Amino acid sequence: MSTVLIALAIAILAVSVWALANRPEQEPPWPPRIQGFSFSPLHEGQSPLEKIYPDESDIESDLALLEGKTHAIRTYTVEDKLFRIPEMAKKYHLNVAFGVWIDGNHERNRKDMQIFLETAARSTNIVRAVVGNEAILRGELTPEELAVYLDEARAALDVPVSTAEPWHVWVKYHELAEHVDYIAVHMLPYWEGVHIDRAVDFVVEKIDLLKELFPGKPIIIAEVGWPSNGRTRQSAVASPANQAVFLRRFLDRAQQENYIYYIMEAFDQPWKRDTEGAVGAYWGVYDVARQEKFPFTRPIVPIPNWTRLAGLSVFIALITFAVLLIDSHSLSDRGRGFLAVLVFAAASGAVWVVYDYIHQYLTVGTVIVGLVMISGMIGVIVVLLTEAHEWAEARWIIRLRRSFRPVTLDDDQLPMVSIHVPAYNEPPEMVIDTLNALATLDYPRFEVLVVDNNTRDSGVWKPVAEHCHSLGARFRFFHVNPLAGFKAGALNFALSRTNAAAQIIAVIDSDYQVAPNWLRDLVPQFKEPKVGIVQAPQDYRDGELNAFKSMCYAEYRGFFFIGMVTRNERNAIIQHGTMTLIRRSVLESIDGWSEWSITEDAELGLRIFEHGYEAAYIPRSYGRGLMPDTFADYKKQRYRWAYGAVQILRRHAKFLSGSKKSQLRNGQRYHFIAGWLPWLADGANLFFNVAALLWSLAMIIDPLHIDPPLVIFSILPLALFTFKIGKVVYLYRTRVNATLAQTVAAAAAGLALSHTIANAVLAGFVTRDKPFYRTPKMAKTGKLSLLTQSLMVSLEEIFLLAAMLSAATTIGLLQKMDTLDMNLWVIVLVVQALPYAATLLVALVSGFPWMRGRFLHWRPQQQETIKTVANSEG
C-alpha cells in the first residue's frame, strides 16, 4: 500500500511541476492590424542559396493571408520573381518597404540595383526603400562602399532611402547617417542574450539612444522579433511562449511609443538554418505551413497540450517504477521514494525532449542525428536508473533477506573438501606461502591439488612440487605441459584427479593465504541441499605496499562490499574464482569449467544459477592475495574481466532474456544484465567521445553551420557522471566506511579503467577468442622503468585526454561563449576527459612504487565496520 501512495504522491508532484511550468500568462492582445511584417515568401524546400524560389501563386497566397492583418511588408531582394512583390501586394492593400540585397559581389549588385530602382520608380505602394541588409555587420561592405549605393538610390527615388543594420552598427558608424533619409534599425534582443522580461525595455532604451544620436532622422524598426526555437543565448531562451510574450508586449509598447516597425518575420524560413544556424528557421509568426504559432489574444501557455505529455510521462514512469520494484519488498519507503523521484523526473525529461525535438523542422540529417541522440538518451537513463536501483538497495534495505547465518556441524558431519590451486609460471616462494597457509587449516578432511600448467622453467615449478611432497599425502602436485583451456583447463584437470570421497570443491588462486577457519566456517552452508556455491570476497594483503596498490585496494572493495551484497539479495552474485566453494555433484552435472571463457568463474556461477541452485555470500575476508604489481597488469586484468563478461552475455543471451528455458529468476536476470550494464555503457561512451571530437572539430571548422548539441543532450552525460560520482562517494562513505581520501582514490582508480573496459567490451562483440591473460604477481619489471611502462600502456588515453582538452580550449577561444549549449558543451568535453586524466594520474602513481599512501591505508576498525555494515539491517 505504501508503494501505491508513494507513486501517487510523486505522480501528483510530477503533474504539478508540469502545471507550474505551463501556467497561463495573460499578455496584451495582438492588435487587429500591425504596422508591418518582414516578408520572405519562401516555402518548405525552397532556398535562395540553391536558387529555388516560390512561384507567383505561392507569393499570392502569402500576401492574401496577410491582407487585413498588417499595413505593410518589408522585402529583402529582387531575385527571380520577388521584384514583383510590390505590384502583387497592391492587390491586397499592402504597402511595401522595398529592399535590395547588397553584398561583396559588386557585379551582381549593379544588376540588382537596376531592377530595384526601376521597380521602385513605377510602384505607387512602395513607401520606403532599404538598400542592403546587415552588409556592414557581415563585413561584406565598408560604410564608404555602401554609401555609394545609398547615394545612388536617394538620387533616383522619391521615397525615403536607408540601409538596415543593428543598433550598435549605427552607433559605431555615425557617418552612415549622412547617406540615409531615416535610420532603419534591427532590434533583436535575443541575439544579445537579453532575458525575455527585459527585452522590450531593451528595445526602448536603444531606440531612445538612436533618437539622441540622430535627432534629425526618423527611426524605423526594420526588424524586431524573437525566435520560437533554437539555442539559449545567455539569458535569452528561444521558445514559442517567449516569442509570443515578447511580440505581444512589444506591440503594446510600440503603440504607446508610436513606433514604425516590421515584425521579424511573417513566416518561418527553414532555409536560414544554413546562414544563421538552427535558430534562423524559427522567427516567423506563422510556421512554414502558414499556421499561427501562438495565440494572439488568449493566455499564453508554454506547451498548450502539456496535460497529454504529463499523462504520458506519468504512464511511462509508473511502468518503469513497477519494473524497478519487482522483488524489492525489503526496500524501505525512503528507498522507494528515492527511486520514484528519479523515475518520474527521467520520464518527464525524456517526454519533453522528444516532444521538443520533433517540433523542429526535420531533415534526413536531423532525423538521423535525433534518433541517435534519443537512443543515447534512453541508454543514459537506463544506466542511471540501474545505478540508482543499486544505490537504493545498498542504502535503504529494511533487512537483508539472505544474510549469512552461521551453521555448525560436528567434525564427523563435515564433508571432505578438495582444494584446487591452479598455477602458471608463478614465483615458487609465493606458492609455497599459499600452501603453508593451507596446511594450517582447521578442518578434519581435505586435500590440496596443485596443477601447474604449461610452465616451462623447471626452476619455477619443481620447488613447489618438492614442497608439496614435504607437506604430506594431503598435498598432490601435477605439472602438465601442454594443457589446453588455460585456467579452466587446469581446474578441469584437477577435477578429474579429485578424491572420490570429496563432496566440495574449493578454489583459490596461487597467491592467496587463507585463514585457518575458512572451511570450518563456510563448508557447513552446504547442509542446505539447494546451495551450489559458497563464496567469500577476494581480499588483498599488499594494499599498503605503495600508493598505487592502495588506490587499487580501495577500488576493489566497492564491488565486494556493495555490489555483491545487493546481488546476493536475489541470489545473483558473480562467482569469482578464488575463495569459492562449489558442490562437486553440481560442478560435474554441468560438465565442469568452460574452457571457452576467459572468465570461467563468473560463467560457471551463471550456469549453476540456470540449473536452479542457490549461492551463499559471506561478506567477510577469509583469505588475502596479491594485487597487480603494475598499472599495465591492472588494466589487463580488468580487460579480461570485461571481455569475459561480454562473452558470457553473448553465450547466455537466450537464458538471460528468457527466450530459452532455464531456472533463472527475474531478479537474477536483472542483476546479470544490469550489473554489466555500466561496462557496456563504457563501450558506448567511447563512441560518444569519438563523435564528440568529430562534432567539435566540425564546430571549429564551420562555426556558422555547426552548432553545439542541444542542451538536453549535454545535460544527460553530465547528470549521469555527477550521479555516479555522488553514488560512489555516498556509498563508500556510508556502507564501506571509507575516508574521503580512500573514496577519491577508489573513484580515480575506477575511472582510470574506463577506456580499457570500453575497448574490451567492443572487442567482445566482434571477436570470440581473446586469449586468457594471467595477472603476474611479484614479477620483475623488465628493461623499461615502471613509469615508462605505465605511460606506454596509457598512450590511447593520453591522446584522447589531449584531444578532448584541446577541443574544449579551442572552442572556448574561437567561439562566442554566450549560449548555454556552447558553455555546456565545453563542460561536457572537460568532464568526458576526466577518465583519461584519471588514467594518466594512476599511471604516474604506478610509475613510482616507492610512493607511499599512508592516508589511504585501511585501519582495523574500518575493516570491522565493513563486516558489521554488510550484515546489519538498513
From TrEMBL:
<feature type="transmembrane region" description="Helical">
    <location>
        <begin position="306"/>
        <end position="326"/>
    </location>
</feature>
<dbReference type="InterPro" id="IPR050321">
    <property type="entry name" value="Glycosyltr_2/OpgH_subfam"/>
</dbReference>
<feature type="transmembrane region" description="Helical">
    <location>
        <begin position="710"/>
        <end position="732"/>
    </location>
</feature>
<keyword id="KW-0812">Transmembrane</keyword>
<keyword id="KW-0328">Glycosyltransferase</keyword>
<feature type="transmembrane region" description="Helical">
    <location>
        <begin position="338"/>
        <end position="355"/>
    </location>
</feature>
<dbReference type="Pfam" id="PF13641">
    <property type="entry name" value="Glyco_tranf_2_3"/>
</dbReference>
<feature type="transmembrane region" description="Helical">
    <location>
        <begin position="361"/>
        <end position="385"/>
    </location>
</feature>
<feature type="transmembrane region" description="Helical">
    <location>
        <begin position="670"/>
        <end position="698"/>
    </location>
</feature>
<keyword id="KW-0460">Magnesium</keyword>
<dbReference type="GO" id="GO:0005886">
    <property type="term" value="C:plasma membrane"/>
</dbReference>
<keyword id="KW-1133">Transmembrane helix</keyword>
<protein>
    <recommendedName>
        <fullName>Beta-monoglucosyldiacylglycerol synthase</fullName>
        <ecNumber>2.4.1.336</ecNumber>
    </recommendedName>
</protein>
<feature type="transmembrane region" description="Helical">
    <location>
        <begin position="786"/>
        <end position="814"/>
    </location>
</feature>
<dbReference type="InterPro" id="IPR017853">
    <property type="entry name" value="GH"/>
</dbReference>
<dbReference type="GO" id="GO:0016758">
    <property type="term" value="F:hexosyltransferase activity"/>
</dbReference>
<keyword id="KW-0472">Membrane</keyword>
<dbReference type="InterPro" id="IPR029044">
    <property type="entry name" value="Nucleotide-diphossugar_trans"/>
</dbReference>
<keyword id="KW-0808">Transferase</keyword>
<feature type="transmembrane region" description="Helical">
    <location>
        <begin position="744"/>
        <end position="766"/>
    </location>
</feature>
<feature type="transmembrane region" description="Helical">
    <location>
        <begin position="826"/>
        <end position="850"/>
    </location>
</feature>
